Each structure stands twice: as C-alpha cells, then as structure tokens.
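FIELD: query
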Amino acid sequence: MSKIVTITFNPSIDKNYFVDRVLPDHKLRSKNPTSDPGGGGINVSKGIKELGGQSIALFPSGGRTGKFLEDLLAQAGIQHQAFANEEETRESLTISETSSNNQYRVVTEGPTVNMKIVDEILEACKKLKPNFLVASGSLPKGLSSDVYARFASLAKKMDSKFVLDTTGDALKAAADEGVFFLKPNLRELSMLSNVEELELDQVDEAAKKLIDNGWCQAVVVSLGAAGAMLATKNHFIHYKTPTIKKRSTVGAGDSMVAGIVWALQSGFPNEDVVAWGVACGSAATMNEGTRLFKKADAEKLFKWVKSHS
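FIELD: result
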C-alpha cells in the first residue's frame, strides 16, 4: 500500500454550535458544541480514513488546544506527528441556525508558527518517503510564502506526488517549482493566469496553460455550483455537481482533495479520480456542522457523477 502524508500548518479545533436563530443582543441558547480536529491537511486525513485508507498527518501543535487536537485524532484512529509550537493552536467557530439552515463561520487567524517547524516537518517527510504528499490550507503567521515550494522541491527529489490546495503567493511559488496535482478554484486559477477574472468558457485553456508551463501534471478546477473540471495534457472532462440538500459547507473542499488522493492511491483512472473528489465534496455538504462526509453517501454520489459526466 502506498503511503500518504498530509501537512497542515494552521490546524484548528472546529467547534459547532446549533441555535434556533441568530439575533443581536440576545443570549443564543445552544446545546453543548461539537468539537472536531480541523485544518486543511487534517481534514484530508479524516476523509481518507472515512474511505478506508490510511495517512499520516503532520502539523504544529501548541498549548491546551493543541493537546486536545492530538487527543481527538488519536480517538479517531488517525496516525499523526505533532511538532511543538510555542503559541496555542487556534479554535474556529461555526454557528448553525436551525430555523434557516444558515451558517455563520468565524475562522481565526491562528498562532505564529516558527520556521524551524517547517524544517522539522521537511525532515519527517524525508524519513517517511511518502508516495503522496498532500499540503492543504493557508499558511499561518511566521511562515514565508515559499514554504510549499520547498515541499514541492523535496517531493520531486523523493519521487513523491505532491498534491497542493492553497491560495495566494504560496500557491504561485509552489506552482513555479512544479507540483503533481493542483486544485484551484476559479479565483485562484485567475490569479495563476494573471487575469482579473476568468469566465467559465476560458477555464479549459487557462488550466491547460498551467500544464504546458510545467507547473503541474493535472489540474482540477473547483467551479462551485457549476461542478469541477479536470485538465490533463491530453484531455478535459467536466463534472456536474449533484443536486442535494446542503446543510454545511465546512470541509467540502478538503473532502474533495481526500477523495482525489484516496482514488489516486487506489489506482483509479483519472476520470474516476475526480469523480470521487466531486462525490466526497458534495457528500460533505449533506452533514450538519463540522462533520465531513459519510462513505456511503460518497459511494452513491460517485455513481451519479460518473453517469452525468
């Protein structure tokens, strides 16, 4: 079995409160909140676990919430290595309004992370020698924008497939270095293409240009309600998103990455790989709060996506 390692530089404890209605100047009554380990790469590891796969999650951890995060991952049976950080791991908040099904999300900026932790995680990756190296999420304070580019360089040296889901300068720097798989949304693809705003009919050409530039071998563009698009050197495939009742969008993008990486590891052809990603991302929106997808839902939606692509 090939090995998957996920990297999360700004992990969090994701707390979800359920209230009947959000009103100013009122006490909002809620049952006790749920608490889930969160952050990009950690969510990917959770999704891979749900699909029956295994991964090792690497992340900085600090203070009381860092210890709680490690405990939650251990309880979930997710292998992990935590790297001590001086400042407290962040908590983020979701308020679910049951009367309207609206969500209100407070995503905190998190602690400053020391660059020495980057070096420690790079060394851990060298020892683990994963077949797939997955980095997901934005970079916290204290880290330079070339951090993911350093992991892209290491992945090439180890002959690992580097899958990246991030944004901004960190995305651009890693793309310049070259990765295996990119998952931008339309805004991020526009940024990489040096265009203010791409139209949907320009996505194919823009994604293909990333591949022609040597920035990646494949691109999956997340198009929201319009679905997703896979671009490789030889073809394009558009995937429709199934119509379902959405309860939460928390972790949907990370669930999509989890489905893609799990399917890659499992040896599915490219067209099925992205169908699994769309299915897992869609399935994640069917659950309340900060819960990711259920495998049974993803399996049903995979069949739908396959038959409509």
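FIELD: remark
The chain has one domain: 4-307.
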